[in-house]
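hi! just following up on the protien thing from before. the input was this:
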Amino acid sequence: MTGGAGYIGSHACKALAQAGYEVVVFDNLSAGHRAAVRYGTLVQGDITDLAAVRAVLRHHEIGAVMHFAAFLDVGESVREPIKYYRNNVGGALTVLEAMATESVPSFVFSSTCATYGEPLETPIPETHPQNPINSYGDSKLAVERALPHFERAHGIRWTALRYFNASGADPDGELGEDHSPEIHLIPRAIDAATGGLGLTVFGDDYPTPDGTCLRDYIHVSDLADAHVKALQRIAAGGASRAYNLGTGTPHSVRAVIEAVQRVAGRPVPWTLGPRRAGDPTALYAAPGRARAELGWKPRLADLDTIVASAWAWHRTHPRGYRTASS
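and the predicted 3d structure came back as:
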């Protein structure tokens, strides 16, 4: 697993281990945390290093790859597109080249709803046109477009999982979200509620009921479960396919702030800022394909439940993984 020391990858490691898989994590720890690798063996290395990727595939006799290693800050991707194409596209192609050379047959790709761009319809089905409005989404789409070519040339079956807004934390309290800097709304709202940096809301003049952006928040453990089901499907000979991973229910930025206030029992200080470049008005999934074909359904879909799991993690890990030996 590439990027398995990161937020979603570490939760997927736990889900895979609980399903009986042996997990090897390949991560350069530029954004991930050694202490987050609680399930599996960590090999430190960079996805742009073809020889290193080939060596770990061969040495550990890898049978499938889950690829999480990518930069993900939409705003940064607008300012620094070279960084995103070099890592997100170049790194993924290096991993796929290594897989082709070492005859690894199955690939599960961490994609994103950002490939859709500004939606023409909501909820968004997998058949929606893909027209990303930032280089983060475009870098993910470039990999999605490459996958059928690798399948035709090298027999690599694939699943692309288009996440909506990953959120929450491991219900057991072992794993959580620890980015530096933190860019996601729920942990930033929690930080603001506990005396940290104030929260900025990027625009309140969108054509939505309260003027703030609408997003589909999906619990990270539900995402992890979907990865296990996707791997099982292609390992059993299922056709290559893309799936949306979301609840199908949108929540506004203001609604999330209110949920954090309810769960925390304290106010969330925030100020209004200008719109952020690259932000669509509304993104929420039509998740029926994943439910029908993967047998996947979110179990932790309630917004307050998601926020409560994140709150519990941050209260017991106020400095993230730095509170553990790492």
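The first strand starts at residue 24 and ends at 27.
Residues 81-102 form the longest helix (22 residues).
cheers
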